[in-house]
Amino acid sequence: MPKILQNARETILKEGYILLEEKGYNNFSMRELANRCEIGLGTVYNYFENKMSLVMEIFNNTWTEVIEESRNIKEKDMELEEKIKSIYKNLEKFLKYHKEVFYHITKEDKIVKEKKADSDKCKKNDVMEELYVIVDEIIEVHKENKDITINMETRKLTSFLISNMITLSMKNTEYTIDDFLYILVNKL
């Protein structure tokens, strides 16, 4: 018989996070989650409309941690390469368990931006925007310090860095972040 939980929402999120790590988004089951929490399936749906709304909350909570860690990295007195490597490690850890959801969300953001691109009121509601801003600021500081000599617009360089970090962490390639940084440093 299902039990009554004192902190049902928190328990559902905690167990949902574990289930998402174990099974991934595509194999995530609300019924299995309810069983793990020892509550009825209807109780889970009282707190979350559907699987995506639950997974989105888990994703957002975890993404917020990545952003906070990236802000902390930005403030540290470190070489550019070490900052990039630290941000990469945070992304890699995050994407290990959330790549399916991340892909879905960034794909949806792209569709929304394309639809809004026709109007002058196009807002950047991209899930990646906060990370882009942090990396922009890191690049600007290192440009001012003459650590970066490449003559490229900051946002383009940020986009290049982040897209390559995501590609490295999402795909099994023979290249590592160290290889990427070696090439980058020799070009910057």
TrEMBL record:
Q: Which GO terms describe its molecular function?
A: DNA binding
Residue ranges constituting the HTH tetR-type domain according to the UniProt record = 6-66
| Family annotation (InterPro entries) | DNA-bd_HTH_TetR-type_CS (IPR023772), Homeodomain-like_sf (IPR009057), HTH-type_Tx_Regulator (IPR050624), HTH_TetR (IPR001647)
* UniProt entry tagged with the keyword DNA-binding: yes
Q: Show the Pfam families listed in the entry.
A: TetR_N (PF00440)
Alphabetical UniProt keywords: DNA-binding
Feature: DNA-binding region: 29-48
Q: What is this protein called?
A: TetR/AcrR family transcriptional regulator
